[in-house]
Write a structure and sequence with these properties.
The protein has helices at residues 43-70, 72-83, 85-96, 116-123; strands at residues 10-13, 16-23, 26-36, 101-103, 109-111, 124-136, 139-150, 159-164, 170-176. It is of the alpha+beta class. The strands form two sheets. A seven-stranded mixed beta sheet has the order 1-2-3-6-7-8-9. The chain has a two-stranded antiparallel ribbon with strand order 4-5.
Length: 177
């Protein structure tokens, strides 16, 4: 992963900053939700403070993104082992797609019930990686949540969440909607 710079981040809202990267063979939106001790009334001061929090924590953000990149397989293993993801996908697709195959928008034809290999290669999608950053009381806490779903809305909006704590402890929170 290349070195991050403050200019790589896009301010979408007063409390949301984003960064686009490539992981799991597709583009993933990184969303930073930052909580700071600052009055939102003065938007310019507030935005400057958000930018300052990003600048001051850029090395840790870089380190955490590199850790995620280096542990992509481990994160997927956690998702598969604790979230019953493949079983849920097979059940959902079996109930909603009565045919033997499903045709993806990219032209790929998947045999049902879907295999683990096809699921990982063509269906599983990391929708977003969220960095929750609390920069209050002169202390910065960072927690990461990853939200996985199926491409082409094959699962009717079901998602699975994985949380990575500050000490890189991984836990799956299972299915959420």
């Amino acid at each position: 992963m290349r070195r991050l710079e403050t200019k790589d981040f896009i301010i979408k809202a007063i409390d949301e900053i984003t960064y686009l990267t490539e992981m799991w063979k597709h583009s993933v939106n990184i969303v930073f939700n930052i909580e700071i001790d600052e009055d939102e009334g003065n938007e310019e001061v507030y935005m400057n403070k958000l930018t300052q929090v990003i600048e001051e924590n850029l090395p840790e953000i870089q380190e955490r993104l590199e850790w995620i990149e280096a542990n992509q397989d481990k994160l997927i293993e956690c998702l598969l082992s604790e979230g019953n993801v493949l079983t849920t996908v097979r059940n959902y697709m079996g109930n909603h797609h009565k045919q033997e195959y499903i045709q993806m928008e990219n032209g790929v034809r998947l045999k049902l019930p879907i295999s683990l290999e096809d699921f990982l290669a063509y269906v599983l999608h990391c929708d977003e990686i969220g960095f929750g950053i609390s920069a209050t009381d002169d202390e910065v806490k960072m927690e990461i949540s990853m939200f996985f779903t199926a491409r082409e809305n094959l699962l009717g909006g079901h998602m699975w969440e994985i949380v990575v704590s500050g000490n890189n402890e991984i836990r799956s929170l299972g299915c959420c909607q």
